[in-house]
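Subject: mismatched residue count in predicted assembly?

I count 910 residues in my input, but I want to confirm that the predicted structure covers every chain. Input:
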Amino acid sequence: MTKMHVTTTINGEPVEFLSDPAASMLDALRGPLGLTGTKEGCGTGDCGACSITVDGRLVCACLMLAVEAEGAEIGTIEGMAQGDHLHPLQQKFLEMAALQCGICTPGVLIAAKSLLEKNPDPTEEDVRFGLAGNLCRCTGYDKIVRAVLETAAEMRSAA
Amino acid sequence: MNDMSNKWIGARTIRPDGADKVTGRAQYSSDYNMPGMVWGKVLRSPHAHARIRGIDTSKAEALPGVKAVVTAKDIVEFPLDKSVMLGIQDMRWMCRNVMAREKALFHGHPIAAVAAINEEVAAQACALIEVDYEVLPHVIEIEDAIRPDAPILHEWNQFEGKPSNIAGTMVLKAGDIEKGFAEADLVVERTFTTRPVHQGHIEPQSCTVSYAADGRVTIWSSSQGQFMVRAMTSLLTGIPQSNIRAIPAEIGGGFGAKTIIYLEPVAVMLSKKSGRPVKMVMTREEVQRATGPAPGSRMTVKIGAKKDGTLVAAQGTFYLQAGALPGSPLRGPVGCSFAAYAIPNVLSVGYDVVSNRSKVAAYRAPGAPHGAFAAECVLDEIAEALGLDPLDMRLKNSAKPGDKAIYGPVFGAVTFKETVEAIKHHPHYKAPLDKNPAPGVKRGRGVASGFWYNAGGESSVQVNITEDGNVLVTTGHPDVGGSRASIANVVAELLGIDHARVNVMIGDTQTIGFSNLTGGSRVTFASAMVATASTEKVIGQLKERAAKIWNIDAEAVKWDDGMALPAGDNAGKFPPLSLKELAAKANEMGGPIGTQVQLNTTGADPGFATHCVDVEVDVELGIIRVIRYTAAQDVGRALHPGYVEGQIQGGVVQGIGWALSEEYLYDAKGRVDNASFLDYRMPVCSDVPMIEALVIEIPNPKHPQGVRGVGEAPIVPPLAAIANAVHDALGTRFYALPMSPPKVTARLEEA
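Triage response: the counts match. Full output below for your records.
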């Protein structure tokens, strides 16, 4: 099938790529774009390991066509830290052992960042429902929820 | 070393692999690519049970873009009459699991595989392979598989003189079971069932493999043991181990599932035939259909007690589903169910039952949660009937040091009581519980305990001092949940240097000595022990170098706080030499500083856990929610408390899923009907509360830091604890898992 030309912005940088019209955004990220930080756990939108943002909206990259990135602003895990300065969520996840194997971590971090942008002062319940689309099989979620709550508190006091 | 004032042991340090994992840079299995790589895809059986009369791959091979096709003919065959074991895996079954031979034994069983220029062409080629099947009647459930007229999977397998689906048994005995029950004032006997549950690792199995022109093979894949990948691939392809380099990618969850392989030998043969590197990635559907879950079970447990709660006899009969090929984890329920208790008369029998479903694989404390579900629910019923507190009854019957364990050895330390007491005295157990908080809502509290063997085994650890006086540690164990952080803590402590100066990496099969699987709750135990031996050797080298520089005996040098100091008569005569200073002088004073120690470690005392849980039941909808959970476990010594708590919390939540929502559903044709994360319902964040981990530290005297394995015991008690809590809420006992809404409502309507 003839490939389509896509012009988009990923993590603030202009990007052009060619895509099979049927390819998912996840395939494009992990394939031609080389951004393998976005993970594939299911390919059906059930695990959240491929969470990205599209124009600020939280999306499972496996459920989006790559060609839909045309003209959009895409955010992936590779753009979360500013150089060697980790995002407060990334730092807190390390300090609080909120990851074990780490395969769900990029998706969880993207979803948590998206949640805090919308709701800087979430309750535990807000966090649990905000992250309900991200499966983690290692941690039992306890340390993830605590790390998000603590980051939110720190970000509020720093603001 | 067990001093609680340690600087690094017990500290919540940041893991060496952490920054890569929160920035997306860590390389997991499917993140590797090779120049010129092609894609492999597996053709899977559309039938649950069928004889394979022939396979014609010619049309697939002729399709443009196809580079190679393999079938069972390309995989080494292990004849049925001779067992060849690698660890607990029999190669007779492994060769038939990676590629069906005489028969397709389950829906999804690999029949052939294709390598092609891309995934689409590979899939098209799979569709062009013509397989001549003779479809056979299939059997899925245990009770159907053990019927006299059941379809037989393996005609050569006999049980009690007849072809059978019972492929093995295990029996453990103590005392005289009949006499024991005769002495009992109360005997409770119940039959329980559990459904197969998947480990649910979020990363599907995958690999990238290169078979080079000189016959050397490189494998990038995630597993719970690169040496297992090497050995199994060698056995199944006939390529010598010395020609296989297995590189452990970061692993996206294993929980036992990745202690065996599916794709690697197939990819090696595709790469050999095509002359190209080959990448294979399972879809989630393939993972759910064709990789090993934990077995389902059918169990009868009978326990006899005196009026005062003294247990006098226990009998367990455990049927486990092996899947299509023999090998369910019988030692789990048979050995663990009664192990924490001093019961004089025990008969524990397990049956390994094959049926037309994917071959089981290890899952966290394999088989033990099943047995504990049955035994700990019966104990709850006995305590209730006798009017005893269930924790007091457990305390009364705890095994003691010096008792002979049902599975053979004599117990050293038994720290079961400490876990029971920790729960008994915890505010959770004493907190009032409003049992009817609203109309149609009921609450209840339950407890249960669990036992796991733990394990030692082979480990290799290198410690090398860099030229600038820092430390690189290499271990041979894939790190599934933070083991690098624990090892960094140990080495920093021993050397008396800042944690950040110690880097820990996982070696591949060509860069580190043999190391056994990450499994059985063994890695932190074994690798900390070997890292200690290795670091102590390096400290010996450092003291020798200092002695040489000072021209005194090495015995007259001590190592303290990261520095060599003259000791005894020489104390104070020379200024101390730091690790950096000694490293700078290494070459002129005798050469590089570093060593590798390889040991078969022993002394892994068993793990005990006791849990308390509160549940809330929506009576109308049948929804059971866990609203409070406290899990006590003796971990010996928590090298990194964050990852120890994490093991406990994660194990508990897997147990919650097992108890309340997870199960395999099959359709009438023997196909998995819920092969997705949408329909196979694992707990999500909003399903569960915080999980309080009560970390008890009674140092294991047989380990330099006092470590006991942690990872498996936490999944043993939850099934029973939750069932006991549901009984407390509803007055109804559930003997079948999962207690999912349709089953709960059906049961309540029945009542």
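The helical segments of chain A are 25-30, 88-95, 105-118, 124-130, 142-158. Marking this ticket as 'not a bug'.
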